[in-house]
Amino acid sequence: MNKTSESPIGIFDSGIGGLTVANAIREVMPHEHIVYFGDTAHLPYGDKSEAAIQAYSVKIANVLLEKGCKVIVIACHSASSASYELLKEYVHQEAHVLNVIDPMIDYVGQHLAGSTVGVIGTKRTIQSDIYSKKIKAQQKGISLRSLATPLLAPMIEEGFFDNQISREIIAQYLSDPQLGDLDALILACTHYPLIKKEIAEYYHGKTQILDSSMVAAESLRNYLAAQGFLNKECTPTSHFYVSDYTESFEASTRLFFGENVKLESHRLWN
Ligand code: DGL
Fold first, then answer.
1. Residue 93's pLDDT is what?
2. Which helix (H) or strand (E) holds 109?
3. Largest CA distance in the chain
4. Of 76, 128, 143, 265, which is most buried by a Cβ count within 10 Å?
5. Does ligand 1 have an atom closer than 6 angstroms to the CB of 77?
6. Residue ranges of the chain whose pLDDT lies below 50
């Protein structure tokens, strides 16, 4: 299928948390058609093996290509760390693939040379060591400290944020000596924009909080503009597919997207 500027942007995640990235994309590029795929049948990806996430990602890429997407955005950090290189090869010339890690690495390299930067995310993202490898390769004198914070995503999904319990759990993680004396902290998980304010409060404004969803959306806009693929005029349409539909997932979409969205069921395996 020939891609044009009017072709949709494909976005995928392990579930509905990636709607934070879809939301940032909608904010930065309000005329783009969006096809979102949340792999709710297999979440959480944060606890899965690299091989399992790669298998799911290939299946999802096929769905997004069938829908004629001009670009595939891996909104999930766990999937970005596990399957970006594979998907780039797999999708090849059919669509450009973007992840949510590289735009942040570029941002940090440009703005935070010589500083101490922390990163928090799922076990899969942190164990992959991808941030530290990529930051080291830049040779900008950045010292990276990483910590897996696996309780945060389910906590947010259950609606626990901006309350006493969430503040205590956040403080417990952020007080880990591994994250001492940071100039900046990267929020390397789809869910964390929802607790950005609480994290900023914990640091009393002394540590810059870096939101990957916004940085990724801006990088996507720059890429599409450079390719002449930006959709500047359309009234946008959106489709939100999930591999396993439940009412509770649909109810949670408001948390991550700012409004309720209608989820459509699309199985990955029959
Ligand atoms: N979307 C995942 C990520 O950004 C968090 C939720 C999960 O573990 O699936 O890493």
1. 87
2. helix 102-111
3. 52
4. 76
5. yes
6. none
Known catalytic residue at 76: yes
Atom 6 of ligand 1, residue of closest alpha carbon: 44
Domains of the chain: 9-99+214-265 (3.40.50.1860), 102-213 (3.40.50.1860)
> Tens digits of per-residue pLDDT, 87-115?
999 998 899 999 999 999 999 999 999 99
pTM assigned to the model: 0.97
- Angle subtended by helix axes 50-66 and 77-91, to nearest 10: 60
Q: What is the pLDDT of residues 1-23, one digit of tens each?
A: 678 999 999 999 999 999 999 99
Question: pLDDT value at position 1?
Answer: 60
Number of Cβ within 10 Å of residue 22's Cβ equals: 29
Which residue of the set 43, 91, 188, 189 is catalytic? 189
Q: Which atom of ligand 1 is nearest to the CA of 122?
A: 10
Q: What is the DSSP letter of 42?
A: T
